[in-house]
């Protein structure tokens, strides 16, 4: 549940804000009453955090509450924000919407979003729910609070001595990701999924692009994935949470946005263009 004080900017735009919680079915129904369109973007997204029992309640049961309320209230069309993480570790391959992963997953976020996508959203779509799924990758932009923000903060402050080698993502600038959602609502076919994930780059490549953009030297040391996997195994043996290490151990989250480009007319800007907007806002 978001802090209602954080909705000030929305209210200025004329948006009616309702206090609710996706794990509270009745609050969801109250907020959605009379709605003609639905964007379900709420999720639990933490890596290596305690209290991960919340992941299932929010990502799976919360999604079930929202989408079943959509069906019961007769909402004409909806867009659900899934993620390319439901494909798991793509092992360097650029997959598409037809890919299926069975696990194991590197994080509880990946696992619970996979369950929500394939065991909640897709069955409801097959039963006739007028829903479209969008699948972003890493999202970056001004005011970012995702797990990627500390990495970029450390980089611009020259406090990032090394990066995990092999880790790769599809990088979506926030405005492009929003545009993908809007296009999915306007043009997406109900019952279909669309990857809106941006261009693929390893973290090493991304920071070298950042160096060209702002002149701050990128780390020259890349930690080999086998070393990170060994560290994760040792951490687990000691009874400590190893999730943060597992997701950095050469895991790749790569998917093609060709379908969204073809059917929605969606385009993602190059990473250099996005970094040119974002990095100056992070400089100390």
Topology:
Layout: H1 8-12, H2 25-32, E1 37-40, H3 53-73, E2 77-81, H4 108-126, E3 131-135, E4 138-140, H5 148-156, E5 162-164, E6 168-173, H6 174-187, E7 193-195, E8 200-202, H7 203-214, E9 221-223, H8 225-237, H9 243-246, E10 252-253, H10 258-264, H11 271-282
Parallel strand pairs: 1-2, 2-3, 3-7, 4-6, 5-9, 6-10
Antiparallel strand pairs: 6-8
Helix pairs in contact: 2-3, 3-4, 7-11
Put the structure in a nutshell.
With 284 residues, the protein is α/β, with parallel strands linked by helices.
Report on the structure:
The chain is 44% helix and 13% strand. It is an alpha/beta fold and 284 residues long. It has a 4-stranded parallel β-sheet with strand order 1-2-3-7, sandwiched between helices. Strands 4, 6, 8 and 10 form a 4-stranded mixed β-sheet that branches. Helix 2 crosses helix 3 (53-73) and helix 3 (53-73) packs parallel to helix 4. The radius of gyration is 19 Å and the shape is globular. The two termini are 31 Å apart.
